Automatic annotation (TrEMBL):
Belongs to the FemABX family. It comes from the Bacteria. Keywords: Acyltransferase, Cell shape, Cell wall biogenesis/degradation, Peptidoglycan synthesis, Transferase. PANTHER family: LIPID II:GLYCINE GLYCYLTRANSFERASE (PTHR36174). It comes from Tersicoccus solisilvae. This is Methicillin resistance protein.
Length: 382
């Protein structure tokens, strides 16, 4: 990494942090509440403000070079931890490499993490990519958030958004709008519990994994107004929903579900449209449908526009001499940072013997490195 004289300041105040994220046009997964959810479920989280030392300290968050909410996941000894920045850093991509160099130096000095993994909210081919490469980052296929996605431009009119849909999709949306279904945000914890039941049932039918219910309750609790759930109600019962995380600029789809009755009524079409228009009315300028794969759910998402978006993907910076051990022997451990993987804990546990074998079989020169890391780990308590 190049010499970087930027200052890094941990932020411990929620209002200050969120004001910074919003002022710099940040993603909702960089908001305080999202980090708090992660902190309740096995991560350590810190929020780092990066500033040019020449900047006026009283000029407010707009003068910051950037910021990053960093989540740390412990790894088996001697790897210590993995540092992860979800849809960050926040700030101008032109200065992102400087920001991340400063963040990486802080992480290395204070945490000793084996690597820093970042997934910026940039389009593929952004000028920031060349700067990351120059700073020592490399792109990895071990993605956490899916870079192939669909992002709607909410500055377009509702007529323009509707015109971009497939013809049958428009017809289903309009049919919903003429029906007796009610589309609105859920408002009570009792309604939240019904949504969670609906989500579990959807997951069982579709065959995807979910977190325990307390995880979703914590999103509702800690993100608050930044995590609206828009649902379709039939006689007061939710039959389809879309769960969103949102910042001032960006709406990011987290989860969705539909009951058999909702499928029959095509309520999953109307509720998507309700989510788009709700976020547009709230002032968001972009709506990210969060990931496209080759599956039925993605096929459904693609009906709402006639384009796809490719984000820059996942970038990784080695921070430890033991990074080759991590890269070679820890593919399962990487899964602890992915979404809704019920086997994540088992994967981490199963990776421990692989790490021990890799370390035990290393060249003699590597043994001194391991001894050094062991000494650091004992002093730091990590």
């Amino acid at each position: 990494m190049s010499q970087n004289h930027a200052t890094v300041t941990p932020i411990d105040d929620r209002s200050t942090w969120d004001a910074t994220v919003e002022a710099l046009g940040g993603h909702p997964l960089q908001l305080w509440g999202w980090g708090q959810v992660k902190a309740e479920h096995g991560w350590q989280v810190e929020r780092l403000l990066v500033a040019d030392p020449a900047a006026d300290p009283g000029s407010g968050p707009e003068a910051a070079m950037g910021a990053a909410e960093v989540a740390y996941r412990f790894l088996p000894w001697p790897l210590r931890s993995l540092a992860y920045v979800s849809r960050g850093p926040v700030g101008d991509p032109e200065r992102a490499a400087e920001v991340l160099e400063a963040v990486a130096a802080h992480v290395k000095a204070t945490r000793g993490s084996v690597a820093l993994v970042v997934e910026p909210d940039w389009e593929a081919g952004s000028p920031g990519e060349a700067r990351l490469t120059a700073a020592g980052f490399h792109r990895t296929d071990a993605t956490i958030l899916i870079p192939r996605t669909l992002i709607l431009d909410l500055t377009r009119t509702e007529d323009e958004l509707m015109a971009a849909m497939h013809r049958t999709t428009r017809a289903n949306v309009r049919k919903n709008l003429r029906s007796d279904l009610e589309f609105r945000r859920i408002a009570t914890e009792a309604e939240l519990e019904k949504v969670l039941t609906l989500y579990r049932d959807t997951a069982a039918r579709a065959g995807f994994g979910v977190h325990d219910d307390d995880y979703y309750r914590d999103i509702w609790r800690f993100l608050g107004d930044n995590s609206p759930i828009v649902a379709a109600f039939d006689d007061g019962e939710p039959i389809a929903f879309v769960w969103i995380a949102r910042s001032a600029a960006t709406a990011f789809e987290l989860y969705g579900g539909v009951s058999p009755a909702g499928q029959k009524a095509r309520a999953n079409y109307g509720v998507k449209w309700a989510a788009f228009t709700e976020m547009k009315a709230a002032g968001c300028t972009r709506y990210d449908l969060n990931g496209l794969l080759n599956d039925g759910i993605s096929d459904f998402k693609k009906q709402f526009a006639q384009h796809e978006d490719q984000l820059t993907g996942t970038w990784e910076l080695p921070l430890s001499p033991l990074y080759p051990v991590f890269a070679k022997a820890m593919p399962l451990a990487r899964k602890v940072v992915t979404r809704a993987r019920p086997a994540a804990k088992a994967a981490i546990a199963g990776a421990v013997p692989a790490v021990r074998r890799a370390v035990g079989g290393a060249l003699p020169a590597a043994r001194s490195v391991v001894a050094t890391v062991r000494s650091r780990g004992s002093r730091s308590g990590q």
